Amino acid sequence: MTALLLSGPSAWAGPLQEADAAYGRGDYANALRIDRSLAAQGNAAAQFNLGAMYDSGKGVAQDYAQAVRWYRLAAAQGFVKAQFNLAQMYDDGRGVAQDHIEAAKWNQLAAAHGPASAQYNLGWSYYNGQGVAQDYAKALKWFRLAAAKGDAYAQSSLGVSYYNGQGVAQDYAKALKWFRLAAAQGDANSQYNLGVLYEKGQGVVQNYAEAVKWYRLAAAQGFAAAQSNLGVLYEKGQGVVQNYAEAVKWFRLAAAQGDAHGQSEIGVMYYNGQGVVQNYAEAVKWFRLAAAQGEAVAQSNLGVSYYNGQGVAQDYAKALKWLNLGAASGDVGAMNKRDIVANLMTPQQIGQAQQMARDCQQRNFKGCD
After folding, report:
1. Number of compact structural domains in the chain
2. Residue-range definition of the domain harbouring residue 76
3. The dihedral of CA 35, 38, 42, 46: what is its sign?
4. Other CB atoms closer than 10 Å to residue 189's CB: what's the count?
5. Domain membership flag for residue 12
6. What is the value of pTM for the model shown?
7. For residue 67, what is the domain's CATH number?
């Protein structure tokens, strides 16, 4: 808790320092007593401090509504940290009804005074159209301001903007630059994105070993997509010596976090008996979990499992249903496979399978077998 922007008579400076010192040594009772007195006199810094204490539950019972009350009083006086924290309360719906418009309003006020975190948050609002009209150019403006101050999240988001060509011409080399800056600060998302750039050769010469390096750094932080991609490189022997057991290890870590790609891949490993003992029932289990999230390859592989009767009872209607869903989700290989299955079925059975697929899509794949 720090009172960085003092407001009101200079006579408040001493008591504020005393309150901060008490807080710093864990004497919350004295900090609370002093801040309450100053806050009642209208001191914005003390009001902010009270809000922070109620927010964190230090010196008082945690009470988000009280935190909002004191943040609001300080924010109304232009206290920037209170404006930023109040925006967070509105974004999260803590102590107040969630309201992204109010959050954007307070972030705008705080961002105008320069804190990188507020500028980044405002850029995020414009990027996602959350509380404001979506505007990639405005998002880029605020990301750029925060990134120039070293904010890793803003640097990462600026990299994404260049990668996707949102608010700016697509430029993989510039995306690489910003991802590097954020990754150097330990940002797992940027480390993952660098892995993607090196794996695909976007903005840089394709280098699987370098991709492995960046995926590994992000994966070590628990970044599921990096764990899954690292598993693929071990499976294929790209940038590392091929190692199915190591691939399974990383797929399993990603799958445990609900990552659909990781679930689909570990299903393939069980289906083929690579790095694990072949087990069709276990493969189907993982295909089903990934398919329920709309993962196209898993949907197709579930269809193949039903076609072959591997891990499940053979069922051409269900096979065609999942192959149709896989094709609709973008798996090109499912198209030929579904034609093979359809040739073994009557028009009535095909119609039944198509209706099953439509019903499954309406339920967003949930509860489909």
Report:
1. 1
2. 1-113
3. negative
4. 21
5. yes
6. 0.89
7. 1.25.40.10
